[in-house]
Amino acid sequence: MTATTERMPRNGVDVPGLFGTINAVGSQPELAEFRFRATNRWVAGTHSRTTIEKFTGAGGDHVHAQTFAYDADHPEVLVGKDHGPTPVEFLLHALGACLMAGVANISAARGVTLTSVQTTIEGDINLLGILGLSEEVRNGYQQIRVTFRIEGDAPPETLRDIVEQSRTRSAVYDVLTNGVDVAIEVA
Amino acid sequence: MTATTERMPRNGVDVPGLFGTINAVGSQPELAEFRFRATNRWVAGTHSRTTIEKFTGAGGDHVHAQTFAYDADHPEVLVGKDHGPTPVEFLLHALGACLMAGVANISAARGVTLTSVQTTIEGDINLLGILGLSEEVRNGYQQIRVTFRIEGDAPPETLRDIVEQSRTRSAVYDVLTNGVDVAIEVA
Predict the structure, then answer these.
(1) Could you give the CA distance from residue B82 to residue B64 in angstroms, rounded to a whole number?
(2) Do the Cβ atoms of A63 and A29 come closer than 8 Å?
(3) pTM of the full predicted structure?
(4) Residue by residue, what is the 3-state secondary structure of chain A?
């Protein structure tokens, strides 16, 4: 048995289940097609609320364990009421959480036990773009930086390799760095 | 006075404050530089928790009205415990909330009173990428679709123009469609 074929549960990851899923999808590739959904409702001003409840994938429809709801808003310095983080802060959360899930799964699959992992994610944005004050400044982040602090029963180089493999397989990292087609329609 | 110079509070938007902010930043462009932050901590398996508390901008440091905290996880069908939405679902939330905040601000600035706005956001993803089962399939979403249902005291064409202007000035739309540099470091 090598580190990459470890099959014990570890780090709270059901490693046998993970490999079972990969094998099942490998033999039935149509199970890999997923569709995720969210509904956002305007509340007042820049305050809105999103609910996340259902998704489709693995050949069927699924309902989350609960209906998740999230408020977003602008802070007062940006003329909002601060009922929630800004949408761009949720992007940082999505990126950090995606890389973290990958680190946990990959560590477990490689037989590495983690003791502590934390990331800080920060993004620089110049509001001259979204305020319409400059045509040269983009609307979105100019750069995002993620810093990992990771501890486990493996040498630093192995832990770095795990982070690198997570980056290589991260859905959110892919979308943020390579972009994606977004179609907007008014019904 | 034209519709585009409307200065009354509307839709819960402090329109005078909004134009005051735009004018202030126009005369002091360094106020436009913002840095947003999030901290993500691993909990167990694919479950992690992000806190969002502080940001920098408008020439100073700011603390949100409260420390916001969000769980993310994978659902059981993806070998998680469903303690929160997946990171890619938070991307849909960020996009919907960003477009919605823009719609509210732009409507108010144009003198349009909104009565109801809702979006559904959905994204298609093929997991053959992140599961490492295909080198041809990307890790992230293949397409994202946003559908607006918007009602207010303006003709449908005006409401469509407001949605289009929001798209044109959306930070999250920009990042998702054009991509952004993401630097990952292990401390």
Answers:
(1) 27
(2) no
(3) 0.96
(4) CCHHHCCCCECCECHHHHHHHHHHHHHCHHHHEEEEEEEEEEEECCEEEEEEEEEEECCEEEEEEEEEEEEECCCHHHCCCCCCCCHHHHHHHHHHHHHHHHHHHHHHHCCCCEEEEEEEEEEEEECCCCCCCCCCCCCCCCEEEEEEEEEECCCHHHHHHHHHHHHHCCHHHHHHHHCCEEEEEEC
Residue of A nearest to B115 (CA): A42
Give the count of beta carbons closer than 10 Å to the beta carbon of residue B145: 17
- Does residue B168 surpass a pLDDT of 90? yes
DSSP B78: G
Cβ separation of B29 and A132 shorter than 8 Å? no
User: CA of B153 to nearest chain A CA: how many angstroms apart?
Assistant: 16
Interchain pair B93, A78: CB under 8 A = no
| Structure-block tokens of residue B82 | 């469903």
Task: Assess contact for B51 and A142: CB atoms under 8 A.
Answer: no
Amino acid at B25: V
pLDDT of amino acid A7: 78
Q: What is the mean pLDDT of residues A83-99?
A: 98
Please write the tens of the pLDDT for every residue from B72-81: 999 999 999 9
Would you say how long chain B is, in residues? 187
Alpha-carbon span B16 to B181, nearest angstrom: 35
Angle, vertex CA A38, rays to CA B79 and CA B104, nearest 5: 150
